[in-house]
Fold this protein.
Amino acid sequence: MDYVVETQQVTRAFGDFEAVRGIDLRIRPGETYGLLGPNGAGKTTLIRMLVGLLRPTTGRVVVLGHDMPNKAVLAQIGYMTQAQAIYTDLSVRENVHFFAAMVGQHDARRVEEVIALVDLSDWTDKLVRTLSGGMQRRTSLACALVHRPRLLLMDEPTVGVDPQLRVQFWEYFKQLNAEGVTIVVSSHVMDEAEQCHRLGFLRKGVMLAEGSSDELRAKAGTETLEGAFLAFAGEEHNG
Amino acid sequence: MDMRRVVILARRVFTQILHDRRTMVLFMVMPLLVLTLAALLLRSSPKDLALGVVNEDAGADTPLGHVSLAEMIEKELDASDSFAVIELERDQVEAALKDGRVKGAVIFAANFSQAVSEGGQTKVELRLEGSNPSTASNVRNNLSRLIMQRMASLATMTGQETVGAPVVIEPSFMYGGPEYDSLDYIAPVYIVFFVFFFIFLLTCVFFLRERSQGTMERLMATPINRLEIVLGYMMGLGIFALIQSAVVLLFTVWVLDIDYAGNLLVVFIIEAILTMVAANMGIAASTFATNEFQVVQFIPLVIVPQGLLSGTIWAIEEMPTLLQPLAYVMPMTYANQAMRAVMIKGQGLGSVWFELVVLVGFAALLIALGALMVQREVV
């Protein structure tokens, strides 16, 4: 298997509206790939198709060698959304344990281990609703990591996260990356994008440009990624 | 299908409720409070209802001498706890009813005693105010009971075999006896109603929350499938519901001292099946709601019609013909019938199997529907 994620001319329409238009993704093992674009660019739709929560209208999505949607593959995927998506009336441990069990991970030690990883060991038995927003976010991440996924799909995981925690999150991501986990992350924050190996600029459902942040800047002839994005977006607009 | 996942999901749902103490206590205690209130209201026999009596009875010559039967009844009415007798003339009746001095007026015609002693039908007129049906039926019931008693004892005295029955109709109860009260009749279906109501609401809100907080999205991104989700929910909430209904049932039977004839285990089985129906109806309904306020709006839509049309209070046969078919597409109807059959008539599983099969059918249908409705594709 050459690619962890591969899409071929993936399009997804909601009625007349095409949220994603003809996207080809090729994401290599151990890579951190960033999907960058403003709100409404189709990032969420694309990621939901990678998870198999949406069927493409046309085109093909292959994840870890399987056509999506595929329930069995999901045991190897960690998925984190913009919403906390954890049970506020359960404790941290109960949440992590639950999502672990859902993907067939029944090792209690791993639950504790991943809670320790996100620095919540002192809060294990606290109900999530009593925790701060940042702690809830870390609980959410722990739930996505507990089963040692080979692929981590994250839809704007750092939205509403304070700068300190955002830095911490990227440290977790790098650590996972070093362990061989492939990461696909969407964001509309450009400074996060610098951390990714490769980026895809997404706008109105179309892939504007792809490459490392240096490549993209060089290609657009701008100093910042933001400038590069605007340059590509303008090009698309005029062309 | 992976049963292990279903059980894990069920356990999670159950744990969530355990952590939400207020919901739990509310759901356990509320039915008891309401039931106690209903018991107090239904059991309080109204004392000394003002009853007008128009006595025109001329009396009759009997083997015991010249007697006025109406006068004897009147004295008895006055002596009873139920009525306070106010003597009226015939032309005062309407006015007395109108200004509320009396709740009803009974009129004994001049030939009352004569007619009774000759046997055959005797007519006793009863004018009721009628704006409150329960007061009206109270007057009617108590009056006819007292008159019947008087007649019966008179019949024994005079050695007659029968005395012509007054037209005043006593509602006949096939089951239960003099001890039997409305609460005994209502309790079984009350349990049904509350189980249904709470589980429906609980499932609706739980499932909605699952969607609105985004956990449904995450859950769908795990290998669990829709059917497993629906079954897990049903099981988790179902266990909670069974504990709730056991509490209500035992409270009804032991604290409120309801008469019941049947096997409580059979009652429990009916409740278990009903729980499945209610939980799955809640899941299916919750997919139509986008916030908790809308869930509340499902109460008049889903719960109230069932409460009205399923024979909870009004017998289905007495409903307008147009509405009757509706009763038979409502799961609660079958639960009511089964519960009454077991608790009041003392019948066993063998007699209610049809109702149970129908309920299981409803549950299966709703499980399928719920599984289809879960996670409608949204952006």
Remarks:
- Chain B touches chain A through 24 residues (CB under 8 Å).
- Confidence is low (pLDDT under 50) at residues 166-179 of chain B.
- The longest strand of chain B covers residues 49-55.
